[in-house]
Amino acid sequence: MERTFDQDPQLPFRLLVDIALRAMFPAVNDPATAVDCMDRMEDMLARLAGRDLDIGYFPDEKGELRVTIPVPRWDQYIRTALDDLLFAAASSPMALRAMHTAHQAAGTRSDRPSPSCETGCSGSNARAATPIR
Predict the structure, then answer these.
(1) Which helix (H) or strand (E) covers residue 101, if one does?
(2) Of 56, 66, 74, 97, whose CA is between 20 and 30 Å from 133?
(3) How many angstroms separate the CA atoms of 109 and 107, rounded?
(4) CA 115, 117, 122 angle in degrees (round to 5)?
(5) Distance (Å, rounded) from C-alpha 106 to C-alpha 103?
(6) Digit-coded pLDDT (tens) for 30-64
(7) Is the pTM above the cut of 0.90?
């Protein structure tokens, strides 16, 4: 069974990361394709930045939490988009610059903390960091 974008919201990022990784493979050596993938991921992150990602909690009429659905948090989208590419991009200044730009843009387009924030994170990810009982 194939995954779909509806079932896995991180799938578009994973597909673009796979394409970018293959493009940066030494036998292929196509950094322009990798940069294009990173630009598209930056665009997707920009679209997510303005959205409420805290959507997996469903209370009953009394306000008690009854159902939770695991959905990706902001930091998970950033990590999916950039983590695997970091080591591959190290040998390509063009790709490394695109990664740096994507990470900076994702951080400035939202009040959400970046995945590199320390334990004192606040903002819309603060709830995601606390377990629900």
Answers:
(1) helix 93-108
(2) 74
(3) 6
(4) 100
(5) 5
(6) 999 999 999 999 999 988 888 888 888 999 999 99
(7) no
Tokens of 126: 């603060």
Q: Which two tokens stand for residue 51?
A: 């959205």
pLDDT tens sequence across 81-113 = 888 888 888 888 888 898 888 878 777 655 555
Q: Is-contact 124 54, C-beta < 8 A? A: yes
Cα torsion angle, 51, 1, 24, 87, sign: positive
- Which run of H or E residues covers position 59? strand 57-59
Q: Mention every residue, 6+ apart, whose C-beta is less than 8 A from residue 68.
A: 56, 57, 58, 132
Which 3 state secondary structure label does DSSP give 58? strand
